[in-house]
Amino acid sequence: MRFEHLGAQPRIHTTAVVAPSAVISGDVTIGAHSQVLHGAVITAEGGAITIGESVIVMENALIRASATDPVHIGDHVLVGPMASISGATVADEVFLATGTRVFNGARIGERSEVRINAVVHLRTVLAADTVVPIAWVAVGNPAQLYSPDRHDEIWDAQKELDFPGYVFGLDRETPDLMVQLTERYGRSLARHADDTRLD
């Protein structure tokens, strides 16, 4: 399903294949010979999404851009089932395994692998040829890699990255943080009420 959102329509190369149950919304460009499988959602929420050539976006993956963080995915990238990319840059020949999470402002270098259920945190930079092991967390610039049992160290490293401030423009110490966050984000998402289905 393709949708016009905020006046922008998806542009899909004639050799790309998009499954009928995938959702492509807004300012999205999909390159030659790319494949978007069933249940995938690619949604440009005010920022552009560019997907290169011979990219495979597998079942139920989510790719989301924001007004402050567009998405760029290079050529020959595999985005695994249930993976999530929000406002990030992914270079050529990257493997994002099942269930990986890549957050706003992150940059993943060429030929890197982010293995099953691993996380590349907010504004984290992975050098070319980096491997993030299964379920590990990459944080910082340059990235430091942490096993999932090191929560306190992960929190210390990512706290200064300021997720609510960077993504939502809100101070983490705001007493009603979640009230303000959900109301602000909800207003932004409500713009989908004016979307037009194109197919």
From TrEMBL:
<protein>
    <submittedName>
        <fullName>Gamma carbonic anhydrase family protein</fullName>
    </submittedName>
</protein>
<dbReference type="InterPro" id="IPR050484">
    <property type="entry name" value="Transf_Hexapept/Carb_Anhydrase"/>
</dbReference>
<dbReference type="InterPro" id="IPR011004">
    <property type="entry name" value="Trimer_LpxA-like_sf"/>
</dbReference>
